[in-house]
Design brief:
The chain is mainly alpha-helical. It is elongated and about 65 Å long. The protein contains 5 helices and no strands.
């Protein structure tokens, strides 16, 4: 059992680190957005790189923050009924919803994102939203990595919920 606890803590640590890295991209979003706004509106000198940079930084915040949010139970959920259940009842709902909804969707997304990332590197894909044309490989890789970390955290949470269902106590 101590091996499982160590693995769960390791997955939690990965999610914490992903969130810590992701938050810096939120800061980058503010810097780039401010620079572009001032450059465009005060100096009439818009950039060709800001739009793509904002999209990539925003996606990175979202994807690296997903596993962090799932770890801290900060994702969106309707708590009107859920909060009325006991710990075991919530664990049962979590297991059912994870198996029926979370894992099928996230597995499909992870497989497709991984295929996109591999293809982007193989064909030297560029992003074409602007005339800057940055390489797409790094962003697509972060996308797949973020989904992988989310699925990993989902597995950790599923193990915790199954343990709660069976034993009636927290594994941690």
């Amino acid at each position: 059992m101590s091996v499982i606890r160590k693995l769960l803590r390791f997955v939690d640590l990965l999610s914490e680190k992903a969130g810590a890295i992701g938050k810096w991209f939120a800061f980058l979003l503010v810097l780039i957005g401010t620079y572009e706004t001032i450059s465009r509106h005060f100096f009439n000198a818009p950039t060709i790189w800001a739009y793509d940079s904002l999209c990539m930084a925003g996606g990175t915040v979202y994807l690296l923050g997903a596993s962090f949010d799932y770890l801290h139970d900060a994702h969106t959920r309707v708590d009107l009924i859920y909060s009325q259940f006991s710990e075991r009842g919530r664990a049962l709902i979590n297991v059912i919803c994870s198996v029926l909804f979370f894992f099928p969707l996230m597995t499909v997304m992870l497989v497709i994102a991984t295929q996109w990332a591999i293809k982007a590197w193989r064909i030297h894909e560029v992003m074409f939203n602007s005339f800057w044309y940055p390489p797409a490989g790094p962003y697509r890789t972060v996308f797949a990595l973020g989904l992988f970390l989310l699925v990993l955290q989902g597995l950790a949470n599923l193990i915790r919920d199954v343990y709660m269902l069976i034993r009636g106590e927290s594994i941690d």
